[in-house]
Amino acid sequence: MLIGLSHAMVKFKSFCFLCLCAMITSTFSASLICFRQRPGGTILYPTTFKECYEIQKFLLRRDKPHAPLTFSRKPGIGYKVPDYWTVGNCALIIDMHSDDEEDTMSFADIAVETGAVNAGCVARPPHFGGTFPVGPKKVMNVTLIGSARSQLGLLRGRPTIGNISIS
Length: 167
Fold this sequence. Notes:
The protein has 167 residues and is α+β, with helices and mostly antiparallel strands. Helices cover 32% and strands 22% of the residues. The protein contains three helices and eight strands, in the order αβαβββββαββ. Strands 1-7-8-5-4 form a five-stranded antiparallel beta sheet. The chain is globular and about 40 Å long.
């Protein structure tokens, strides 16, 4: 019983830490953009805080999540973007602003900024998600967006972390 309780407390503390980081980040940044449905625009799908939070936790469970990596679209330079992960109907997309940019950060940094989008745009109505610049140079965005699997072509055929089949 005591072991189960201590495990639950550790999970709760990590959840609170990520939520606190997300709220602090989103409170002090004017760069957070939340998506809104526009008449005649692209159809947006709502998602949930819980599903998007699972992606945050996955980023922190990566091998060496605090190790700095260079992110770029350029071939042969660090971690290749764009990349994406899905859980349920939540998709996280990371991508640079342009082909010639690169920035260095860790997946833990990305998880914290993903939390800012989750707290600021997914937890609040209309729950469509949003986007936020990350890294020291702010030339890469994290984007959380609700997805209808059959209609979001970008994610078609990609294994999901929600089903524990990870690529």
